[in-house]
Design brief:
Largest sheet: 2 strands, antiparallel
Helix content: 55-70%
Membrane topology: Multi-pass membrane protein
Strand order of the largest sheet: 1-2
InterPro entries: Prenylated_rab_accept_PRA1
Distance between the termini: 21 Å
Family: Belongs to the PRA1 family.
Radius of gyration: 24 Å
Mean pLDDT: 76
Function: May be involved in both secretory and endocytic intracellular trafficking in the endosomal/prevacuolar compartments.
Transmembrane segments: 52-71, 77-98, 143-160, 166-183
Number of helices: 11
Shape: elongated
Order of helices and strands: HHHHHHHEEEEHHHH
């Protein structure tokens, strides 16, 4: 079993399961050796291997390119932050934590206002809530914050003309990632471990094998 047999779905599943807190690969290794793939099959295998192996490097590279695109457009930075918050509010845990921290901060200056920011009580019938628990942020329904932040961010994107900058920066970052993953010679030690893990673990799923392959990444690679 090799990377050529790994589908895009397997790779996505593995990227969801793997630990993203691992540090990026050294620059000397990232730009160590480049060769042309000898066939489309070799290119397909190399692309998936490098996307997994250098995932942190690619993420940092794309963020860096986006940041460079924002340098001349400060409003675009604010718009990007508001857009990120709008998306984050859709997560129940983040919305609850954000509301709690804001309410706690306001309570230090105005306890009366903080009391108004508490979410309404949900009626309980026979020990169970009478309706599905709604998410509130600072005493208001979550959708209000999502709508307001999204609207303001859209206006800032329009005023700063930053949306086109973001699209171009993102396209450039993805193109740079594709080119590097296509021509960077795969790490031989990592490939050897991946093939061995597929046999030794019995591999219930390909994603399981890919995640186990992560154990080889902490060792010094052979470029």
């Amino acid at each position: 079993m090799d990377w050529g047999n790994v589908t895009a779905e397997d790779l996505i599943d593995a990227l969801r399961e793997v630990d993203w807190s691992s540090p990026p690969r050294p620059i000397s290794e990232f730009f160590a050796r480049f060769t042309f793939p000898r066939s489309s099959a070799k290119w397909n295998s190399r692309l998936k291997c490098n996307l997994y192996y250098y995932r942190t490097n690619y993420f940092i590279m794309i963020v860096f390119i986006l940041a460079l695109g924002f340098l001349r457009r400060p409003l675009a930075i604010v718009a990007a932050s508001l857009t990120a918050l709008s998306i984050a509010f859709l997560n129940d845990s983040f919305a609850g934590t954000f509301s709690e921290k804001v309410t706690r901060t306001v309570r230090q200056f105005s306890p009366h206002m903080a009391a108004k920011m508490r979410p309404p009580l949900t009626p309980v019938i026979r020990g169970r809530p009478s309706a599905k628990r709604a998410i509130y942020i600072c005493g208001r329904p979550r959708w209000v914050f999502v709508l307001v932040f999204s609207s303001v961010s859209f206006m800032l994107w329009f005023i700063s003309c930053g949306l086109l900058t973001v699209l171009w920066s993102l396209a450039f970052g993805l193109l740079a990632t594709l080119l590097h993953a296509s021509f960077r010679t795969p790490n031989l030690k990592a490939l050897t471990f991946f093939n061995a893990s597929s046999v030794n673990y019995g591999v219930h799923t390909k994603a399981f094998a890919i995640v186990n392959y992560e154990k080889a990444l902490s060792s010094k690679p052979l470029a």
